[in-house]
Amino acid sequence: MDYLRRKDMKVLVTYYTESGNTEKLAQAIHDGIERADKEIVPIQDARSLEGYDVIFCGFPVQSSSVPPQVERFLKQIPEGKLLAIFGTHGSLRGGELAVTAFYYAMSLAAKAKVIGTFGCRGKVKSKLIDTLMKNPEHRGWAIEAQSAGGHPGEPDLEDGKEFARWMITKARSLQGDVVPVGTSLTGS
Ligand SMILES: Cc1cc2nc3c(=O)[nH]c(=O)nc-3n(C[C@H](O)[C@H](O)[C@H](O)COP(=O)(O)O)c2cc1C
Q1: What is the mean pLDDT of the segment spanning 64-68?
Q2: Which CATH architecture has domain 3-123+152-178?
Q3: pTM of this structure
Q4: At what angle do helices 126-133 and 136-146 cross, to 10 degrees?
Q5: Domain boundaries, given as residue ranges, for the chain
Q6: Which ligand 1 atom sits nearest the alpha carbon of residue 121?
Q7: Which of 9, 49, 74, 109 is the most buried (most CB within 10 A)?
Q8: Which of 18, 86, 103 to mutate to test ligand 1, by most ligand atoms within 8 A of the CB atom?
Q9: Ligand 1 centroid vs 4 CA: distance in angstroms?
Q10: Is there an atom of ligand 1 within 6 Å of 91 CB?
Q11: Which of 24, 64, 66, 89, when mutated, tests ligand 1's pocket best, judged by the most ligand atoms within 8 Å of its CB?
Q12: Helix %, strand %, coil % for the chain, to 5?
């Protein structure tokens, strides 16, 4: 059966980035959001969140965790707001370092309703890899990080767009905004 949307949603994509990887993914996510009133802004420029139906918030995983700017943002997301979390990381997709960071991000946004998460790899600055290699404690993940060169690439960005589309579909259905074709748009 085909489904129809009843109204436009207001969507914010906001992100923190240091070397541009998460910004690329944020842009792809923004591009993947269809038929919505959408905005994309760096996290330091995000203002009142009240008017948005859905917020996408992205960050680079740092020390298996969430950068402080993003921690602060996630904590102040209003009660019940629909939230999709995304990020880039040097370690493997689905690996422990990234998963730990995503769980932590979800715990910070305790008042929001998290509707999904998405992560992909992002190349790591060679200077950081060199530093990590010198430390036996970090060498394991530094070796892993070396193979993140070239990310996020086109396949990652396509997956990001797909994630955005599914999140919007899910948000519409949670808001009761997806109805079978043929249903009266006036509700009468
Ligand atoms: C200080 C620092 C710490 C990092 N720690 C991790 C980590 O614990 N796990 C990981 O997978 N990647 C880690 N990374 C790699 C970044 O998450 C990755 O390169 C990311 O794509 C950078 O995104 P950006 O360009 O948006 O800043 C770290 C990078 C930096 C600079």
Answers
A1: 96
A2: 3-Layer(aba) Sandwich (3.40)
A3: 0.92
A4: 140
A5: 3-123+152-178
A6: 21
A7: 74
A8: 18
A9: 40
A10: yes
A11: 89
A12: 40, 25, 35
DSSP secondary structure letters along 19-79: SSHHHHHHHHHHHH--SEEEEEEEGGG----TT-SEEEEEEE-BTTB--HHHHHHHHTPPT
pLDDT at 137: 86
Radius of gyration, alpha carbons of the chain = 18
Task: Please give the Cα distance from 114 to 85 (Å, whole number).
Answer: 8
Question: Residue 109: what are its φ and ψ, rounded to 5°?
Answer: -90, 50
Closest CA relative to residue 93, chosen from 166, 153, 138: 153
Contact between residue 97 and residue 91 where contact means Cβ atoms under 8 Å apart: yes
Specify whether the backbone of 20 is left (phi greater than 0), alpha (psi in -120 to 50) or beta. left
pLDDT in tens, 91-102: 999 988 899 999
C-alpha dist (Å) from residue 173 to 5, 110, 168, 180: 9, 22, 9, 11
Count of CB atoms within 10 A of residue 150's CB?
Answer: 10
